[in-house]
């Protein structure tokens, strides 16, 4: 019996034109390999692995600036996208993780068991790689892979202090919550694929376009809610936030700082990309689906901010207080993601997607230095005193004036008070919500009330440092850690003074590929970054 030969295509091998846009990720992979090989060449690998990881992160950061937005568009047959938003986020993420490594040298390195360094930095770089990829995908399959690549190393990092029972308990809680929310998310994404027969979120025939033409259904709402559950866990949005305070308290200080910014930022950028793709396909019109989605995200953000701020009132541990603070700030940024419908007050030429991205990117840039500085000071004090209790910060204004000043600067910025950059970040949030008018004014009021509420528990820490008496001896922080804290405080002042150019830079990189593509191409290709 004659049979026709079956043509077998050649395997897909991406060329440098495809890989160039993802040079930072390639450097991270190279750094992971180098960290794993380092123990074969040195007897005490912990510090050596730290330096190797630092060099890899610096190389990845340089490649972000060198590559820029070259190769903007879809890559790897639509699995990945490269656009200005992803480039800006990668730059922020890599700068932040470099700060985390420097924090590790000044806080945890002396107490870490020799030989644990290769594992630690492999996990840290692996989680960073996943969080970088989360900002660069509009494909359901790659979305799941990126989220899990970010999550699985984070679970191990949370319980990395192997003799610390609180860390092991926190890691177990983190894994259980993560497994539950990930399974719900994957189930919802499988329903999206079953409903529309495609894994692509944007583009011709993608999910966003098909949803716009077919309307909503009960299954669609279940699928979208499942996606919000999965990403809400990464953001620590209420009611998916229960893991956050326990994990922050049980994990080492640099892991808590890492999760406070990197995990939330990656989840917010990915959620914003998906939601803006849906809204763009429906031209930001007042459709039932977009109206309900906007209300859902706005209410979720308002509740998250309120729960985070009110729960922080009763905290006596500095890491738990900063955990609830991070939940509140995630709520503020989540409110911006609710800008899916053009309100009655919005200007005709205002691009909601770019406006929301600009506000969130600027907020993340400021939030990076606020949290890095606050956690660094907390880690330095813990190293010298062996305590995380806020009451033990008594007299810190006398015992360590520099650390007290740096922590005060970061806390005032977290409130949103001048002369620190947190003030401009909050003003941007208010401005963007007010531009849309209608019920978004309620979100402005909620955020305003929460800002006033947050002043109490931040100032409580400052009051303990400067007004409570203590007979304890002065402390002398590690010079490297003190340098990181001082730089963070100085940058917070500088970002207020020079907020105009920095805000314009965030605006320049606030374009999503595939969302309002005509506007994106015309505006970004013809413009230059601000000086």
Care to describe what's here?
With 531 residues, this protein is mainly alpha-helical. The protein has one domain. Helix content is 71%, strand content 1%. The protein has a two-stranded antiparallel ribbon. Helix 2 runs antiparallel to helix 3 (45-67). The longest helix has 34 residues, at 352-385. It is globular. The model is unreliable at 517-531 (pLDDT under 50).
Order of helices and strands: HHHEEHHHHHHHHHHHHHHHHHH
Inertia-based shape = globular
Distance between the termini: 73 Å
Radius of gyration: 23 Å
Q: State which percent range the strand residues make up.
A: under 5%
Flag low-confidence runs. Answer: 517-531
Biggest β-sheet, characterized?
2 strands, antiparallel
Summed over residues and divided by their number, the pLDDT gives a mean of 86
List the helices and strands and how they pair.
Layout: H1 16-19, H2 23-37, H3 45-67, E1 73-75, E2 80-82, H4 84-107, H5 117-134, H6 140-158, H7 165-196, H8 207-214, H9 218-235, H10 243-250, H11 253-281, H12 288-312, H13 318-337, H14 352-385, H15 396-399, H16 401-415, H17 422-436, H18 440-467, H19 479-497, H20 499-508, H21 517-526
Antiparallel strand pairs: 1-2
Helix pairs in contact: 2-3, 2-5, 3-4, 3-5, 4-11, 4-14, 4-19, 5-6, 5-11, 6-7, 6-11, 7-9, 7-10, 8-11, 9-11, 10-13, 11-13, 11-14, 12-13, 12-18, 13-14, 13-18, 14-16, 14-17, 14-19, 14-20, 16-18, 16-19, 17-18
């Amino acid at each position: 019996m004659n049979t026709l030969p079956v043509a077998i295509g050649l395997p897909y091998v991406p060329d440098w034109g495809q890989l160039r846009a993802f040079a930072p990720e390639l450097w991270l992979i190279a750094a992971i390999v180098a960290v794993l090989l380092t123990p074969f060449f040195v007897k005490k690998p912990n510090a050596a692995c730290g330096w190797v990881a630092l060099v890899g992160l610096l190389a990845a950061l340089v490649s972000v600036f060198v590559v820029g937005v070259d190769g903007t568009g879809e890559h790897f047959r639509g699995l990945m996208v490269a656009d200005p938003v992803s480039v800006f986020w990668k730059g922020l993420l890599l700068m932040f993780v470099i700060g985390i490594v420097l924090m590790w040298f000044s806080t945890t390195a002396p107490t870490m068991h020799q030989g644990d360094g290769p594992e630690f930095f492999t996990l840290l770089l692996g989680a960073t790689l996943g969080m970088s990829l989360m900002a660069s995908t509009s494909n359901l399959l790659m979305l799941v892979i990126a989220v899990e690549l970010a999550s699985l190393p984070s679970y191990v990092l949370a319980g990395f202090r192997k003799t610390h029972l609180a860390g092991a308990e926190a890691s177990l809680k983190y894994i259980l919550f993560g497994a539950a929310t990930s399974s719900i998310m994957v189930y919802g994404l499988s329903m999206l694929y079953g409903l529309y027969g495609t894994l692509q979120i944007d583009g011709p025939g993608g999910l966003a376009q098909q949803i716009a033409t077919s309307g909503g259904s009960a299954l669609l709402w279940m699928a979208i809610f499942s996606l919000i559950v999965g990403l809400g866990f990464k953001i620590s949005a209420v009611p998916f936030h229960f893991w956050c305070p326990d994990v922050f308290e049980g994990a080492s200080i640099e892991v808590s700082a890492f999760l406070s910014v990197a995990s939330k930022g990656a989840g917010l950028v990915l959620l914003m990309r998906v939601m803006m793709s849906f809204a763009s396909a429906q031209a930001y019109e007042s459709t039932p689906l977009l109206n309900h989605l906007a209300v859902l995200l706005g209410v979720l953000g308002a509740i998250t901010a309120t729960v985070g701020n009110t729960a922080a009132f009763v905290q006596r541990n500095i890491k738990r207080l900063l955990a609830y603070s991070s939940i509140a700030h995630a709520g503020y940024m989540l409110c911006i993601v609710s800008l899916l419908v053009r309100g009655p007050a919005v200007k005709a030429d205002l691009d909601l997607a770019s406006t929301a991205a600009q506000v969130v990117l600027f907020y993340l840039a400021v939030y990076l230095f606020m949290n890095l500085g606050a956690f660094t000071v907390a880690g330095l004090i813990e190293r010298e005193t062996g305590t995380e209790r806020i009451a033990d910060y008594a007299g810190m204004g006398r015992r360590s004036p520099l650390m007290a000043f740096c922590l005060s600067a970061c806390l005032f910025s977290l409130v949103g008070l001048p002369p620190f950059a947190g003030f401009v970040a909050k003003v941007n949030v208010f401005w963007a919500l007010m531009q849309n008018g209608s019920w978004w004014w309620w979100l402005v009021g909620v955020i305003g009330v929460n800002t006033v509420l947050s002043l109490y528990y931040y100032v409580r820490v400052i009051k303990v440092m400067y007004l409570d008496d203590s007979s304890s001896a002065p402390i002398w922080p590690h010079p490297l850690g003190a340098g990181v804290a001082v730089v963070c405080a100085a940058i917070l002042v500088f970002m207020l003074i020079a907020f105009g150019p920095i805000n314009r830079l965030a605006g320049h990189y606030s374009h999503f590929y595939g969302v309002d593509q005509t506007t994106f191409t015309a505006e970004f290709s013809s413009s230059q970054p601000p000086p």
